[in-house]
Structure formats: structure tokens, C-alpha cells
């Protein structure tokens, strides 16, 4: 656009603002502004905007105060709040996403605070003004026409940039050969890289678009890095029971931790590196009594019977599942089942597991536990894997879908990032259980109608969890220092691998999977090239005492 055309556009806006300020009462949104207000707005435009036609921006505080709105600045949170009746705008310094009546909108660049002024792009002021003066001030202008799925996804993706990949690459340990949970774990003694964080970053490379296929792990990552990953993983496997144990945690760990580490090691890290475990996995071991065998040069090693006691019979499994806190903490109960679901299925106990789960399902909501809450939806997300592995359609799928849609759109702040991601993962998991029989009537249509608003709400809830380095923290206050019952970091106001990969790669891919669409990643191979170079050239980590 030429300077002359921009100047004409500014004059049109000036005229529009003057009309709005002088005659808004006719529209019915606000009382008419005084002649002084009109003169003030005119002066603001002519005196402060047209001096720089290359980037026309309005001084937000002066403009909206001239229209009778209250404008406040919070120096602690770096937020500007504009309030007029039921209408509100919240803008954060350094961020490009603003909230209009709770709905996220994206500027062409981050909000800039200079000399106590907040200039915003000329075209964006039109959106704000139309929202302010519309007949229903409780509904933002962006929702007069319902957003499309593509528009909502664009808003969600605006939360992410290449800093996420840079943050994850910075957690690599070139000596040990894995990735740390967070910066505090990386920088302090007493912590080592862990399998789950390493596996999550490996999955992120595919989900984000850094790699286009699993085969590229063998070409995009250098041979020394791949060998470090393999050695790091294989040396943790216990020849006696086939599980993988971290030296910093030992064997006295919860079942959920043991099961998760088994999955990350065997199904993700080693599989992506195209390498097998050194010893038989628990699912491959004989159900007969333990017996000594010769393994390499290690001499006789006692091979344990397959799996823990609850995998030895249907009754033992039922007793174990019945002891889980399905009413008091359904999310925890579902997570316990999810962590060992593959072992349950490998032991031939999948049908028994889904029979018990179906017997305790809440048929009113399609979830587990009481009511429609973040916790009960999260339990359903975890439990759905067992139905998928057992090739059994998820019971009461439409009930569960409707409950999940309602929970995803509630305005209750989330206490952890998984409560934003889990509804999408739950729907995707439920959908997978119907792959061979066809979805229930109305499933696709119901989800399609609700998806844009659900996505916008997910984007809104992510805002308090985003940090300046591109990472995300697990909770609004601090990142968790425990994961599945073990100490993984110092915690504090920092991002972590779990939260960051959930927010970016896992949530985006789950949304596409829930909708039955192919994943549309954000990154490309250029980001992978930078990531691989950072990892390959990483210097040894120098740690300090906590």
C-alpha cells in the first residue's frame, strides 16, 4: 500500500471515529461523546498518526479514554485492560494475541509499550471499535460471524514459534545422551536426563513437522547423536525383568512410572532409532516360572515371570483395577490403567480390562467418576487406550463427546496444562476405537459444530502458561517438580518438556486426529536442521548445587 493510500485510509478512520464518538447513542451501545471527545480523537489522529505513514498505529489509551472507557496498566503482569460496560480488551506487552471479551485475536506484531503509550495497528482498531459499538456488547465482533476451523487453528498456532524447538534442543546432554525435563534439572546436580522427556522430544520432531517421516530420524540426526540415544536407553534395561530403570530413581518406583518408561524406551526411542532392546521385554517373557538363562557374557541371569502380580490372572487384574481411586481421583485411576495398558493387552487380559472398565463407567456422561469435570474427561482420555488396544468400541461415545465438548468450553481456569490438551486427546482416542465399525451417528457433525469455539477456548487457556523462552509450564503458578511419582526438577516458574510438547505438538496433532484430518504441522526441515546442529555441537553441561 502506498503512503498516499495509507493517508486516505487514516482520514477515513478519522471520519469514522468522529461519527462514532458523536453519534454512538443512535447505535445504542454507548452514550454520545462530547464535542471535546471528537476534537480529542481528531487531534490524536492528525497529530500522532499521520507523522509515520509507513506504519499507522493509534495510541490506544488516549483513544479509548476519549470514548469514556477505563484503561488500566498492571506493571507486574505487563497487561493493559480496557473496560467499558460489558466490553473488555486485555493486551500483554510483548505478545501478539489480545483478548476481546475472552476471545483471542492476533495482531500483526507483538504489543509495544513505549512512553506509557500502547500503539496498535490502524486496521485492528476497526475490530475493536466494531466490538465496542455493536448492539450486543457482550459478544465480540470476531464472533458475529462464527469462526471457521481454519481461523480458530490459526489463532491457536499463533501461540507457537521456533523458540520452542530452540528451547527443547537446549536440554540435550551430549555426555549422557538424553534430554532433561527442564532447565533446572539440566543445570543442577542430582538430576539426569530421563526417558520420558527424551521420548517426548523425539515424538515432537514428527508432530511439529521437523521430520516428515520416521526414516528421517536416521538421516537428519547425526550418527553420534543417534548412538548416544541408543546407549542412553539400552543401558537402563534390566536383564532380569526387561523394564527400564533410571540410575537416579532405582527400582522402587510406582507402576505408572515403570510402565511409562517401558513405553518411551521401547516403543519410541529405540523404535525410532531402528534398534532393538538388549533383552526381552516384559510382554515377551514366558508366563512360566522364573528360570536362569545365559545372556551375552554376563553369566546366568534370573529371568522373572512376565509382569507384576496383577497381570497373572483376570481376577488379579480386576482386584488391582478395583482398588484404584475411580471416584476420589478418576484421572489418577485412568492414568494407572493407561500406563500399563499395552502390558495388559500383551498378557491376554484386554477383554477382561474393558469389561471391568465398562461396568464402572458413568453412563450419564460417558466418562469415569462423578459429573463433567476436567478430571473425569482426563480419565476417559486415559482409559480409551485400553479400548483401542482391545479393539473394542468405546461405550456411550456420543455421551462422552457431548460431555467433553462442554468441559472444553467451561471458563474455570485450568490447574494444569493437560486439562487443555486432554479433551482433544480423549476425542481422538474415542474416534480410534471406531476405526473398524464406523462412528456413531451424529459424532462428526456434533464435533464439527463445536470445534472452532473449543479451539479458541484452548488457545485462551494456554496464555497464562506460556513463557518468554517459548516454553510452557505445567501449571499457572510453577512447573511440577514431580512426574509419575519421581523427582524430575527443582520446579519453580520454568517451562518443562512435558508441558511444552503437550501444548505444541501433541495438542495440535490430537485436534487434527479428533477431526479425522491429516496433521498440518507448523515447522519444516529448516527448523530440524538448526535443532540437529544445536544438539550435535552442544558443549558438556556444567552443573551447580541446588
From TrEMBL:
<dbReference type="Pfam" id="PF07833">
    <property type="entry name" value="Cu_amine_oxidN1"/>
</dbReference>
<protein>
    <submittedName>
        <fullName>Copper amine oxidase N-terminal domain-containing protein</fullName>
    </submittedName>
</protein>
<dbReference type="InterPro" id="IPR012854">
    <property type="entry name" value="Cu_amine_oxidase-like_N"/>
</dbReference>
<keyword id="KW-0732">Signal</keyword>
<dbReference type="InterPro" id="IPR036582">
    <property type="entry name" value="Mao_N_sf"/>
</dbReference>
<feature type="domain" description="Copper amine oxidase-like N-terminal">
    <location>
        <begin position="54"/>
        <end position="131"/>
    </location>
</feature>
<feature type="signal peptide">
    <location>
        <begin position="1"/>
        <end position="35"/>
    </location>
</feature>
Amino acid at each position: 500500500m502506498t503512503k498516499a493510500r495509507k493517508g486516505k485510509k487514516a482520514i477515513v478512520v478519522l471520519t469514522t471515529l468522529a461519527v462514532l464518538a458523536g453519534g454512538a447513542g443512535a447505535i445504542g451501545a454507548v452514550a454520545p461523546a462530547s464535542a471535546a471527545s471528537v476534537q480529542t480523537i481528531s487531534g490524536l489522529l492528525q497529530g500522532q498518526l499521520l507523522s509515520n505513514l509507513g506504519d499507522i498505529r493509534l495510541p490506544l489509551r488516549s483513544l479509548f479514554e476519549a470514548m469514556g472507557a477505563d484503561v488500566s496498566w498492571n506493571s507486574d503482569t505487563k497487561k493493559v485492560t480496557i473496560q467499558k460496560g460489558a466490553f473488555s480488551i486485555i493486551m500483554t506487552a510483548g505478545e501478539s494475541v489480545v483478548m476481546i471479551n475472552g476471545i483471542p485475536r492476533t495482531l500483526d506484531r507483538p504489543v509495544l509499550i513505549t512512553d506509557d503509550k500502547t500503539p496498535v495497528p490502524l486496521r485492528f482498531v476497526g475490530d475493536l471499535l466494531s466490538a465496542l459499538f455493536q448492539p450486543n456488547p457482550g459478544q465480540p465482533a470476531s464472533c458475529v460471524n462464527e469462526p471457521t476451523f481454519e481461523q480458530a487453528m490459526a489463532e491457536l498456532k499463533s501461540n507457537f514459534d521456533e523458540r520452542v524447538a530452540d528451547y527443547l534442543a537446549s536440554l540435550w546432554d551430549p555426555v549422557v545422551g538424553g534430554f532433561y525435563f527442564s532447565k533446572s534439572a539440566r543445570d543442577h546436580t542430582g538430576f539426569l536426563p530421563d526417558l520420558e522427556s527424551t521420548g517426548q522430544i523425539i515424538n515432537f520432531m514428527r508432530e511439529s513437522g521437523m521430520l516428515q517421516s520416521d526414516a528421517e530420524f536416521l538421516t537428519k540426526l547425526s550418527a553420534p547423536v543417534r548412538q548416544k540415544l541408543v546407549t542412553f536407553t539400552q543401558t537402563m534395561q534390566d536383564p532380569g525383568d526387561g523394564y527400564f530403570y533410571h540410575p537416579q530413581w532405582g527400582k522402587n518406583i510406582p507402576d505408572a512410572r515403570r510402565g511409562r518408561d517401558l513405553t518411551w524406551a521401547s516403543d519410541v526411542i529405540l523404535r525410532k532409532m531402528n534398534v532393538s532392546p538388549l533383552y526381552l521385554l516384559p510382554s515377551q517373557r514366558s508366563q512360566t516360572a522364573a528360570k536362569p538363562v545365559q545372556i551375552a557374557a554376563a553369566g546366568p541371569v534370573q529371568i522373572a515371570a512376565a509382569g507384576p502380580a496383577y497381570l497373572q490372572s483376570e481376577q488379579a487384574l480386576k482386584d488391582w483395577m478395583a482398588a484404584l481411586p475411580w471416584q476420589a481421583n478418576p484421572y489418577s485411576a485412568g492414568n494407572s490403567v493407561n500406563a500399563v495398558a499395552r502390558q495388559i493387552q500383551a498378557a491376554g487380559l484386554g477383554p477382561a480390562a474393558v469389561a471391568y472398565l465398562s461396568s464402572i463407567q458413568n453412563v450419564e456422561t460417558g466418562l469415569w467418576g462423578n459429573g463433567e469435570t476436567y478430571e473425569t474427561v482426563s480419565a476417559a482420555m486415559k482409559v480409551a487406550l485400553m479400548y483401542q488396544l482391545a479393539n473394542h468400541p468405546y461405550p456411550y461415545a456420543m455421551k462422552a463427546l457431548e460431555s467433553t465438548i462442554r468441559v472444553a468450553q467451561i471458563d474455570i481456569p485450568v490447574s494444569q496444562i493437560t486439562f487443555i490438551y486432554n479433551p482433544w486427546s480423549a476425542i481422538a482416542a474415542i474416534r480410534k476405537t471406531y476405526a473398524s465399525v464406523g462412528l456413531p451417528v451424529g459424532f462428526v457433525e456434533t464435533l464439527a459444530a463445536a470445534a472452532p469455539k473449543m479451539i479458541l477456548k484452548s488457545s485462551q487457556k494456554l496464555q497464562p502458561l506460556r513463557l518468554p523462552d517459548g516454553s510452557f509450564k505445567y501449571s499457572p503458578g510453577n512447573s511440577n517438580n514431580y512426574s509419575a511419582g519421581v523427582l524430575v526438577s527443582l520446579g519453580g516458574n520454568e517451562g518443562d518438556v512435558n508441558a511444552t510438547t503437550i501444548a505444541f505438538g501433541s495438542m495440535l496433532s490430537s485436534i487434527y486426529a479428533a477431526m479425522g484430518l491429516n496433521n498440518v504441522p507448523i515447522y519444516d526441515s529448516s527448523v530440524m536442521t538448526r535443532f540437529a546442529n544445536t544438539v550435535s555441537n552442544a558443549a558438556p553441561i556444567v552443573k551447580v548445587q541446588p
